[in-house]
Amino acid sequence: MLYQSVRSSKLNMPIxxxxxxxxxxxxxTLEGVIxxxxxxxxxxxxxxxxxxxxxxSRFVDCSRITEWKVSVSAIQRAAQRVxxxxxxxxxxxxxxxxxxxxxxxxxxxxxxxQGKTMVFRDIDETKKWLGID
Length: 133
Known about the structure:
This protein has a single domain (3-130), classed as STAS domain (Transcription Regulator spoIIAA). Helices cover 35% and strands 33% of the residues. The chain is built from 4 helices and 6 strands, in the order E-E-E-H-E-H-E-H-E-H. It is globular and about 35 Å long.
């Protein structure tokens, strides 16, 4: 299957993802209120997915987030996961100020990794940098 959507069994799960195996990209969508628990649950769920491929690039869409209730330690844990997946690109689309600032923390915490993480306010720039425009 070239494109597969994966959602949590919970209704209204604020983090969902789709895999595009043809382009080797995982598209993540974050919406509503994002908390430490949602981030931890999502990371665990994605890692336990038998079709998960750590080498796939990531396109993270933060445009639908209404509120961040995330601690710095949760961002540090997410950054550690990004650093563990060396060599892949993560493009974060974060047009609102709060999402942009939070995503920039993740970008800064992964600056020493072999992968690349970049945060953008413009969706076309995000896609272009990831090579999916």
